[in-house]
Design goal:
mainly beta; Tachylectin-2, Chain A; five-stranded antiparallel beta sheet; 28 strands; globular; disordered N terminus; Secreted protein; signal
Amino acid sequence: MRHRFTPSFFGTALVAAALLAAGSGVPATAAASELTQISRTPYKLTEGGSFAKYAPRVTALDGKLRKASFADVLTDGNRTARPLCRSTGISGATGFCWQTGGDTDDKQWYPQGVTGSWDASATGSYAGHKAMLVSWHSDNGGGTKGVRISFVNHDNPGKPTYRHVLLVEPTTTDTFAAVKIHAGGIAWVGDYLYVADTKRGFRVFDLRHLWRTEADPGKTKIGKGSDGKYYAFDYRYVLPQVGGYTQNGTGSCSVAPAVTAPLCFSFVGLDRSTTTPSLIAGEYYYDGKGGSRLTRWSLNAENKLAEETAAAAYRSAHPKLQGGLAHKNTFMLSSSRNSTTAGVLYRSKLNAASSTSHLPPGPEDLSYQAAAKRLWTLTEHPGNRQVIGIPLDLG
């Protein structure tokens, strides 16, 4: 949401999961809607020279902070995940729960986006490792600490370890600031991490640039301190923004707008089944109604947007969408209601009825691990936070 799976749902969830895994296309519940294609021409994102703007700042800061490699950070985990700690109601589910205590129950930080090294490369690994990345936004205190990314070491899926890394925006060649966005979805492609910027578009971060920062027990310092050292609210590593893509105008997530209005970038997923990978972005509306738009953005060989105009656009009747992706003409969409009501997973194709199944309350972003035939999602509510892998064959 922009902010226990009860026993009565378990039977339905098990049946629905089996239907989805089998690819039967038979609706698991009575509700079914269509996904329709709409004109792509109203939807444009411009890079606006952002990569050129950030390049000298990042280069300068590379020379002022201690650099770390992706493998350095991934293998420096300071937290240990647990096996799934609550029933998901999904047959064959795998995954993990966060470390007991802070991450499970913290009401300042909320998990939102999920992606994996299977998104980053066709081989399913990055820098010699299997990994997952999860975004969290700080919800209290005005969101002053911005966004952090959990680097989850998934080399041994039964015993994942992880560490939180703060996202930062280089504001000059000498310092950086927190990134104050919701980060409702993330997609990892090559060296780049695309992060949904709700009203604007995408921010882009580069995993080849990771900086080590100083201890800050008070958790109050960000950027260059008066002592000339660099801090990040006591996070030991930061990941800098290197570019971005912005629409003309700001999107609203309050109510479903006119079809040509600026978009609400609530989440972003990936489609690796296209000739080059493409991003799938979508909308969540607070009014609880459908009409959410989905847009596809083709990437080029450098894993940047291939053109300013969306490659395709669609409209879904499903309400309160929290995550979405596509694979071989099939769209997977997640929807949530509140902390006690089951979420919904939709399997959709253009101009066809959707099949549906239940998810635990509070499902968010989605990522598809094609080689393992597994769909990943995560739940956000304190006390009921899990990262869940669902058996699912999308062809």
